[in-house]
UniProtKB/TrEMBL annotation, chain A:
Keywords: Cell membrane, Membrane, Transmembrane, Transmembrane helix. It is a multi-pass membrane protein. NCBIfam families: PRK09094.1 (NF006573). The keyword Nuclease does not apply. The chain crosses the membrane at residues 6-21, 28-51, 71-97. This is Na(+)/H(+) antiporter subunit C. The keyword ATP-binding does not apply. Its main location: membrane. It comes from Falsiruegeria mediterranea M17.
TrEMBL record, chain B:
NDH-1 shuttles electrons from NADH, via FMN and iron-sulfur (Fe-S) centers, to quinones in the respiratory chain. The immediate electron acceptor for the enzyme in this species is believed to be ubiquinone. Couples the redox reaction to proton translocation (for every two electrons transferred, four hydrogen ions are translocated across the cytoplasmic membrane), and thus conserves the redox energy in a proton gradient. Residues 128-422 form the NADH:quinone oxidoreductase/Mrp antiporter transmembrane domain. This is Na(+)/H(+) antiporter subunit D. It comes from Falsiruegeria mediterranea M17. Keywords: Cell membrane, Membrane, Transmembrane, Transmembrane helix. It is a multi-pass membrane protein. GO terms for cellular component: plasma membrane.
Length: 114, 520
């Protein structure tokens, strides 16, 4: 279980970083999404892995429980990354439409770094 | 528990949706409400500063949940000072953008500005590390909107870069927070401080990883070399009043470094002792060098000032990286100074841009050149750290604080040489912009004109209505007055920053107030 989760986080991160280093906005945005999935899975693991356990303490019996806080954190992180992805898609789209150019670097039109 | 502590967050959070939903078609009403809201924010932040003068740490528990289970807002001297600085800067930027007509060149300027203020004030006030992340995102998402305000292909493409870079930073922030939570089991800063102090010294590898990851995140925000690449392009392509407002955003990074690495990973914590300062100090010196070389190297006014902002972050972080009370006190003074000086230069540059474009090259004479030259001169003196303005006092304080350090020779050399390069850079561009254009025999060569058509189309296309030039100029002069006041009243300000630093380096009061005092 631990190995599965760790390798999933690792692979998502590696794929995300690879895509981030591309030159066009579309792969970069997909790369960012993959990275945010990786961090969401990672955040789950910070509360230790517990299967089939409720996120509540039981004061009458010593039953296993899972930490509820990382789940709340993941929920917040998902909402934020979802909103941010929407924003970056819109900005990238309008940048593409106004300049007819999908590259993420700015070296083509000079004037910015002379 | 005073409800005033949460007011700097609630006020813009209510005002911004109100402006979007109710006033979206009424620019003059938007202006009135935005100015009124900023005036109120200024009044609130003054009241908050007054509350902290007795040295107490005030805690506000959201939803009345006791810490560390609920989220707390904490008001101490440092937070109050930063919130006040934000409010003052916002006041100037709002007045300037109204005066120069910038808020009319796109939609929702005032609403985005209020959201930005909410995020910045929240980041300064929160006492919870995850909440700090949330407020970072709030201020970032508002800044994305402000950065592309007015549009144009060049600005939008710079905006994409800026957003992508900051999304990466946010991901890194979450990794850092996850690591810290996995090790300590808490995210409340005061509770983190207690748990980190209790950790056995031989089992702290993960903790150190978390500490350094967090430092990287804050260095991205503070534009420390080699994580500064987002700053020149985005500041140079953002609308200039927005760049002036962004002067506070790099300070959010510096604030977070100061807060986390005095409170949680303080100098006396065994696991991370020396770790942060050892990395931060060389990085800050490199930042200063690269910033000043950039000032000398660039041919565009906006970029020159953006590099000036990077250089001033370098000086600031050198002082923070010493992690001594006297160094921190100097850093706080320099924070106030560099925020005002950077904003002043950006606003002056906007006036110059209106008249002759953003390139540093000869040009036919422009109207009000004498006044603008004077203002640019004042800003450049302040930024470069020459007497008689507060930059000189600030750099002197930083160098004085560095005397205690073992490698003070290197620090002094870096600060003095880079100041010299900065002076040369500003003098060179200032004389090209303001003096060579006064040559009566000068005729604009046709060739550079073509260059303007091709490369700065969107800057040229922007309509240049100047509804209230008097208002724009008076807000610029307000910044000059602030710089002069900061120089004259350097004594009282330093007394306050000294007390602030003392409070930071004795975190027991903060921890006590959050974990035990809040229940009273």
């Amino acid at each position: 279980m631990e190995f599965l989760l760790a390798s999933a986080v690792g692979m998502l991160t590696a794929a995300g970083v690879y895509l981030l280093l591309r030159r066009r906005t579309f792969p970069v945005i997909v790369g960012i999404s993959l990275l945010s999935y990786a961090v969401n899975v990672f955040l789950f693991a910070t509360g230790r892995l517990a299967l089939n356990a409720p996120p509540v303490l039981n004061k009458y019996a010593d039953v296993p429980y899972t930490d509820p806080l990382p789940q709340a954190l993941v929920l917040t992180a998902i909402v934020i990354s979802f909103g941010m992805t929407a924003v970056v898609v819109m900005i990238a789209l309008s940048a593409y439409l106004s300049s007819q150019n999908d590259r993420i670097d700015m070296s083509e039109n000079t004037g910015d770094d002379v | 528990m005073s409800h005033l502590i949460v007011a700097p967050i609630v006020l813009p959070a209510v005002l911004a949706p109100f402006i979007i939903m109710v006033l979206r078609h009424h620019l003059s009403l938007q202006r009135i409400f935005s100015v009124a809201g900023t005036v109120m924010l200024l009044a609130i932040s003054l009241a908050l500063l007054g509350m902290t003068l007795d040295g107490q740490v005030h805690v506000y528990e959201l939803g009345d949940w006791p810490a560390p289970f609920g989220i707390v807002m904490v008001l101490d001297r440092l937070s109050a000072l930063m919130v006040l600085l934000t409010a003052v800067l916002a006041m100037v930027v709002v007045l300037y953008s109204i005066g120069s007509g910038w808020d009319n060149r796109g939609r929702h300027f005032h609403a985005l500005l209020q959201f930005q203020l909410m995020g910045v004030c929240g980041a300064f006030l929160t006492g919870d590390a995850f909440n700090l992340f949330v407020f970072f995102e709030v201020l970032l998402i508002a800044s994305y909107g402000l950065m592309i305000h007015g549009g144009g292909p060049r600005r939008l493409r710079a905006g994409v870069q800026y957003v992508v870079y900051n999304l990466l930073g946010s991901t890194l922030f979450l990794f850092a927070l996850g690591t810290l939570y996995a090790v300590t089991g808490t995210l409340n800063m005061a509770d983190l401080a207690v748990r980190v102090g209790e950790m056995p010294a031989d089992d702290t590898a993960l903790l150190r990883v978390g500490a350094v990851l967090l430092l990287l995140v804050f260095c991205v925000k503070a534009a420390v070399l080699p994580l500064h690449f987002w700053l020149p392009t985005s500041y140079a392509n953002a609308p200039l009043p927005v760049s002036a407002l962004f002067a506070i955003m790099t300070k959010v990074g510096a604030y977070s470094i100061l807060r986390i690495y005095t409170l949680v990973f303080g100098p006396e914590v065994e696991a991370t002792a020396g770790l942060v300062g050892d990395w931060l100090l060389p990085a800050a010196m490199l930042t200063l060098i690269v910033g000043s070389i950039g000032i000398l190297g660039t041919r565009i006014i906006n970029r020159m000032i953006a590099f000036g902002a990077i250089a001033s972050m370098g000086t600031l972080l050198i002082s923070i990286a010493l992690f001594t009370p006297i160094g921190t006190s100097a850093a706080l003074y320099y924070t106030i100074h560099s925020t005002i000086a950077t904003a002043l230069l950006f606003l002056v540059a906007d006036q110059v841009r209106e008249r002759r474009g953003i390139r540093i090259r000869s040009h036919s004479p422009m109207p009000q050149a004498g006044l603008l030259a004077g203002l640019f001169f004042v800003g450049a003196i302040a930024m470069a750290g020459m007497p008689p303005l507060s930059g000189f006092v600030g750099k002197l304080l930083v160098m004085d604080a560095a005397r205690q350090s073992t490698d003070f020779g290197v620090i002094w050399a870096v600060i003095l040489i880079s100041s010299f390069i900065t002076i040369v850079g500003f003098a060179r561009s200032g004389s090209i912009i303001f003096w060579r254009s006064h040559d009566p025999d000068f005729i604009d060569a046709p060739e550079p004109e073509v260059e303007i058509e091709g490369t700065e189309d969107e800057h040229a296309k922007e309509p240049a209505p100047e509804p209230y030039p008097g208002l724009a100029f008076s807000s610029v002069f307000g910044l000059v007055a602030l710089l002069v006041l900061l120089t004259i009243f350097a004594g009282p300000v330093l007394e306050f920053t000294g007390e602030t630093a003392a409070q930071l380096f004795d975190p027991s009061a903060y921890i006590d107030a959050v974990l035990h005092g809040g229940q009273k």
